[in-house]
Amino acid sequence: MKKFKIPDESKANKESIFVNSSLIKQQKSKILRTIIFFTCILFSIQDISSQTKIKDADNFYYNCSYQEAKKSYNDVYNNPNATDTDRVKAGRRLAYLSWHIAQNLEDARKYINSSINYKIDEANLLVNLSKYETEANNFSTALDLCKKALKYSDNNVLSNLIKIREAGIYLEEAIFNIENGKQFDHKKIKNALNKIIIINRNEPGLLEANEIQLGLALLLKNGKAAFEAWKGYFRIPQHEKAKGILQPVEENLQKVLLGMEEDNFSNQMYSELIIQLANSRFYNYANLLSLINKNTQNKNNENLNDIINYYSFCKSADLLSENYHRSIALNGLTKQKRKDFYKNLLKIKKNLWNKLSWNNKIKKFSNSNFKDELYSRFGTIFKEVKPYYVYPGKTGLFLFAHTISDDNINVKQYGYETSVHFVNLDFMYANSFDGWFRGSQTGNLGGWNEKSMIVQMRRAYTAEPVFWWNRISQKQLSNNFEKRIEKLSLKDEEIAKNNPVAYLPGLVNRIRYNSCIRLKNSLIKKGFKGSQLRMAFITNFQNYQINASIFGHEGRHIIDRKYRLIFEPTCKNFEYRAKLSEIIFSDDAFFTMGFSAVYMRNLGSKGKHSKGSLKIINNLVIWMKKNKDNIKGINTEKLVLPQLDLLSDNQLVSAFQSMDPLYKKRSKKIMKKK
Questions:
Q1: Which domains does the chain carry?
Q2: Rounded to an integer, what distance in angstroms lies between the CA atom of residue 270 and that of residue 263?
Q3: Residue 607: which residues within 8 A CB-CB, separation 6 or more?
Q4: pTM of the entire structure?
């Protein structure tokens, strides 16, 4: 008979304890995972909330809403859950708003100094504060900040920018002393000049650095360094000659500057130097030399008096504009405030008008005559728009800048021909409200198209070629950017899946980067090297942009109007047609595709530009699908737009030609002749 085995109670208890313990561990693990999950969600929400707040603050800033921007940036700055990067950005902006808008230097210092504690971008923060200290005439403090900034610099580009800022402070201090009847320190100026000459020779094309060198050299009567800087400012290679309106100025300026160091440099030569500086639109330095040599301030010298009086008008208009915009930012706009601005503007216009020399009887003053006279005498172009009752147009728009090139150029497209009056402007005074608010040197304008001429604001385009040269030539910068392109390109695939004709940041940056490398390599093949290679890259980059945007795009507008090929008020394809010409008649199709507004971020939004771009990208995708068998390396299983840069230059141009009604029309004519 089989014995029934009684279970071991102690063993059963142990097993029971083990099972319960195991269940408890599982439950604890589950609870822990749940806590971690919700904690991650919480931090994610906080991070998203922080990002949203910094974006809100940026939107207020870009909309020029001072009080809202200040409050929003303060919310981020004081938020312990915000990222360090966002808090530093908020601190930087609060410092800018504190000084530039509210003129509160103590607050600006507070925000910068506390932001430095996060150990993010310390060098640039210190440089920003040095700029505010310089504007407040605290020159020694500003110089100390530059020395501190140099210790934080981690690359040569940044170090040179700090050294340029330092040289600029020495120049500003010297000018301040001269204007207040004091002597300047020759030894400091000489030391600053020697340093900046080295930077400009090694890294040509830096406008601010060359402008500073010119000022320093003029103070020391170093004619050779002054002439070198003058050419450098206008980006004229040292072995080439100036063109257009600067050509006679260069010839006269070279003669007088090379004789500047001689003991017999007469008052007459001083006067000639002032005139030539004014003719190249350096009215600030022309005025400075008149202060240094009082003998040039002769009531009988009408040319010099006109220059000095005109510069006084420029400064008065600039100050009036600044005070008007600051008052609007701090306390809002009123009808009386706007009325007073235009009333005072009219006063300073008439004041200049009455001080100008006239061969015969003084002309009758009118705004139209004033603009024509100043354009003729001083190369002044005004951008003046009366107030209209839509923000920010309520403030009105008044600014002016000066011609450094002024040419009538023939443009030919598809057998049509027209003349384009193209002016390139620099040395702006006064500003738009949004331009002043955000510190723009161009009124936040790239240019504009008037009935009789096309205007380009030079400073809107001068930084980009230098930026891209550094990006492809500095190893650290290029390595970092290549990694960024890889990340953006991966995201492109997801973006394109949701929208096959979307703006793809990875693609655009890839096109830009490769186009710049290709441009640089083509110049190396031509024999350029060193600083000459850099200057050739910068000037070619500029020319590519001007040729595409002015002669391609704006030229097409003029041809379409002149030959009545479209009726502009109702034409939906007005910008579409001009964008096609940008690529078709460009120096480098892919370069233009990357750097122009043909392929823009806000595809399809309101406006003829964005709608024109969307139509082009739609047609481009269709063309690529039809011609995929001829595109080398294309993956037919993937979306085509992210692979746009696989096209050859000829294929890209062919794609655009297939969209252009004028090209089709010309092709039909050729076929008929055959």
A1: 121-297 (1.25.40), 311-458 (no CATH), 463-673 (no CATH)
A2: 12
A3: none
A4: 0.89
